[in-house]
Design a protein that fits this description.
Layout: H1 2-21, H2 24-76
Length: 77
């Protein structure tokens, strides 16, 4: 999330500086590059988030199974 906000701030700054200097074509190129970078960062963050969710689900299932096994062992004693 921070990367996305940072990329948006960089893009805004680049556009602001380009508007002041009059280099419209360069600003457009910079904005396009920044947007591509932002999309790349967003895709990576989404993939990492999905991976973390999957790992969390697996850990929760394993913990539940361990708890059930422990309860079954206590009941058997």
């Amino acid at each position: 999330m921070r990367k996305i906000v940072l990329a948006a701030a960089v893009a805004g700054s680049a556009l602001g500086l380009a508007a002041c200097s009059g280099a419209t074509e360069e600003a457009a190129d910079t904005a396009e590059e920044t947007m591509a970078d932002t999309e790349s960062v967003a895709e990576e963050a989404t993939a990492e988030g999905e991976e973390a969710m999957a790992e969390g689900e697996e850990a929760a299932e394993a913990a539940g199974e361990e708890a059930e096994e422990a309860m079954a062992e206590e009941a058997a004693e």
